[in-house]
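G., before I forget:
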Amino acid sequence: MMGLFKRGSASPAPDIGALGAGVLALRMPVAGTVPPSCIGVVADRGGRTRRAAAGQRFNPGEHETAFCFHPGPYSVDLLPFAAAPELGLRLAFAVDGPDPRVGQQRFDLYLASEAGTTVEVAQFGRAIEAAVQRELAQGVLALPPCTTVDEWHAFRAGLNQLLYTRFGVTVDDCVPVDLDNDYAQVLRGRIERPADLPPAAPASMPLASDAHSLRRLFLELPCVASGLRLAVLPPGQALFRQQQALLQRLDAVTLDIGTMPALELAAPGRPLDPARQEERAAHSAQAAAALDDTWALMARMSLAGSAGMAAIFDEADRIVANLEYASAARRIAEPS
Amino acid sequence: MNSATCRTTFADGSVAVVTATRRPRAGRADVKCSCAADPQLAARMQQVVRLARHTEARFDSRDQVVISIDRAPAQHERDWELAVVLADRMVRGVWEGGAGVHANGWSDHWQLGRIDGHDAGPGDAILGAALGHLARLNGQPDCGASVSSARAWFPLHSGGINDSLCWVEVSVYPLDSPAGDEEDSIATPGLDAAQQLAVRQVLAAARHFDGRALGRWRTVVRFGQGRFQGNSFELALVMADRLARGREFVPRGRIIASGCSGAWHAGRVDTVEGCAPKCALVLGQAVAGDRLLLPKAWETVLPEGFVAAVKARGASLACIDRIGIM
């Protein structure tokens, strides 16, 4: 325990007490012991992770980062539709025990690829909200007016699977609630200051930085590809060929991401125009959005039977095409 | 569908046809525009289409859309912009307007989906100033405006060829101070006294069911056509009101509803007349993403194959006995 504070005098000690309440996970700056009822995760630069149980000592090596997370349970309020600000969903979720059938837990990958110094529950809730809003807007999840019981169950099944596949969390409960947002107040505010955000982009999520998007793509695309490789196909050659073609294209995109040129250089030694840099960052954010779509597609794939596989592969074709398009556009320094 | 057309009226009164075609991208630009060998106009068309696509949730880079106008508009004329945007949406199946869409409108804010106005156009056209926002093609509120207005559609059955879907629009605006009587804050321009009373009573009762809605809103209710009888519009009116006040889940398409109630304060939905003709009409009009809401009593008497046909169109159907979730 004393070793926790010896070497880390440069960086402040993380607030371990908040774990499990307002904070979901913390990055640990130095080696130490996993706090009680938490779980330690050590991630290397390639996104490979290993776990340490509570009370065990974790020892991050060179170029490794250590996180501690509290499995919960947590509760967040989501806004499923930006146009309906008084109607929300109250979500109770937890990071469940490890699934022994997979090599890497999805939540560990989330920590390795997306977590900063702290993962606050509110910030995590906004990420969940953005994912749910995106799926609802695309019509993958459906929450229509006057939802019937059957539709609600279908939504819940899709939501549970989406959040498990995308974030690695398990949904305990999800109920519709009245949020405290006062829509009348919001409308009054718009008289003075008209909102200038396109409705398709969830306003709660700021545009991710270029490095963050590329890091996510670099770490997560191989996992997506292995998930697609493991898909259970109905007998027959047609879908198998499609799957092989998609895997090849995904590998090409992965290679493309791994060799992506630096944001601020047009050529070695020649800086790039700042406006053009912004465009490049927008394209990598677009690629990261397509990556989110692939995780949502993985969730649908595990729910769909063999009959729905053809539709899933058609959708996969679209998403991989978007990935190829965005990564090719990110690569171009100066459009001709 | 690999081709779609949309008509538009030029300033001199002539009608031009905007044609959009979809083909595999094959490494070309996402949008290609051409108009009477005028490169400046084509560049403006491309810009309009690309900006308007920012309001869409789903991105597909596999297609190229080729858009052309059969005759060149006059210099500085911009009224064709809405027609180009709608043709681009129709050819990709983002919005299904059916055949014979006629649209006029221009905007400086296509990236927000807002439409600023229009110059000309016949009465049956989609006019920019009346539409106001691309989301309102499906009756949904504009996420940036200070007046929230939403539409819902209801089937009007008049026995035969004049059956049509009629819309009801509810616009709400926050009241400065709580109103004394809810019914006084609801205006219904163009309706006669009996209908006005009916609309006011329905809305006030349905808001009572909501708990937090009373005394907060100034409301304007408009109907697509003013002359009709019966009370089967009530459910559509209540749904549009809930959508405008941000108290209802938002459908991807339109809400098409038929139903009435003797007890809106309890949220109950009662049955109405004319199941078979209304179902036939609704089935003809529903497109992908639409939400059909019918009374619970119709569930057992729906025409053969109706549910499957609705599903095949991509719309969803619910027979409800009360409003709200489940």
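The longest helix of chain B spans residues 193-210. Chain B touches chain A through 51 residues (CB under 8 Å).

More on Monday.
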